[in-house]
Design a protein that fits this description.
334 residues, mainly alpha, DNA polymerase, domain 1, hpI Integrase, Chain A, 3 domains, elongated
């Protein structure tokens, strides 16, 4: 960048654009001192403009790239959720340039979801906010349009868990041994559905009666390695299945890999057949594992470790089952 005087007596600033093209602008002054002041201000403005410059990308292209990233680094459940969110977001907005999407655009989309379910709206908000944070670091936007949208205050609900009678009623209608083994193992370990159906024999230590979730066959939700001790019921399932094992997967269905959606639907049919609370789903087995432990006096801290929660606050939903502790505390005043 330099200053030069043209034949008409006016000073001009000559500079290069980011693309390498040479350009010039008049200082509108024949006085060199004033022209130098103009040059100084012009340099500052050019730096600011350069810092604010964004790479142009449309929503369709960005969503395609982000989903490729998600497929590699997120859990399958998150990836499929993002596919749905982006499809609906594109239906709502069309295909605008990413930097032109406003907070108001996002609010309208998110609040429509809140009319159906605040829980769903919060999930959409969190996923889109994370995606746009990625866009910010990649230079596609100047600021995240979802940053100013407040999180929804989701009302706390108590986890649904089986009573021992309900669980026995469920087991009575399970005729398939593969499903029965999976259900018994789930309620005795508290493993998540994906952790169960991706579990491999090399993750089992028969000597110490433990299993290790090592983020190889499946990335855990907390992304942390976790050792899970096996009680007699869970260990017995493994001993029985090991005898006839023909797959590297611990749990299979009729010799084939278990698909997450398949087991969810199969479990729901069993719940209906057992004539128990139809709100129960496969994840209720994990809630039951935690709830039964708390009811038997196991500390919230220990339950948190067994469940693999990254924050003990997540485990506090089971604290209501220890109401006797609170009663004993207040009775200290009597």
């Amino acid at each position: 960048m330099f200053l030069s005087k043209r034949p008409n007596g006016y000073y001009y600033v000559f500079y290069e654009t980011p693309s390498g093209k040479r350009n010039s602008v008049s200082t509108k002054s024949k006085n060199k001192r004033n022209a130098l002041k103009f040059l100084s201000e012009f340099q500052k403005n050019l730096i600011v403009a350069s810092e604010n410059e964004v790479t142009i990308i449309d929503l369709k292209t960005f969503s395609f790239d982000y989903l490729k990233f998600s497929e590699k680094f997120h859990r399958p459940k998150t990836y499929y959720m993002l596919k749905i969110i982006f499809e609906q977001f594109k239906e709502h907005l069309g295909n605008p340039v990413l930097n032109e999407i406003t907070t108001r655009d996002c609010e309208i989309f998110i609040y429509k979801k809140a009319d159906v379910s605040q829980y769903t709206a919060q999930k959409y908000l969190a996923h889109l906010r994370a995606a746009f944070n990625k866009a910010l670091t990649q230079g596609y936007i100047r600021e995240n349009p979802l940053r100013k949208i407040n999180n929804f205050k989701i009302p706390e609900t108590l986890p649904k868990f089986f009573s021992e009678d309900e669980f026995q009623s469920l087991l009575k209608v399970v005729e398939d041994e593969d499903l029965k083994d999976l259900i018994i193992f789930a309620i005795n370990t508290g493993l998540r559905q994906m952790e169960l159906i991706t579990l491999e024999w090399n993750q089992i230590d028969f000597t110490s009666r433990t299993l290790i979730l090592n983020n190889r066959s499946n990335i855990t939700k907390s992304k942390k390695v976790r050792n899970v001790p096996l009680n007699t019921s869970a260990f017995s399932v493994l001993e029985k299945r090991k005898i006839f094992a023909v797959s590297k997967k611990v749990f299979t269905y009729k010799g084939g890999i278990i698909i997450q959606d398949f087991i969810s639907k199969k479990f729901k049919k069993l719940v209906i057949k057992a004539k128990i609370n139809t709100d129960f789903n496969f994840h209720s087995l994990r809630h039951t594992f935690a709830s039964w432990l708390v009811q038997k006096g196991v500390s919230i801290y220990e339950v948190s470790k067994l469940l693999g929660h990254s924050d003990i606050k997540t485990t506090q939903i089971y604290a209501h089952l220890r109401s006797d502790d609170l009663r004993n505390a207040v009775e200290m005043l009597d």
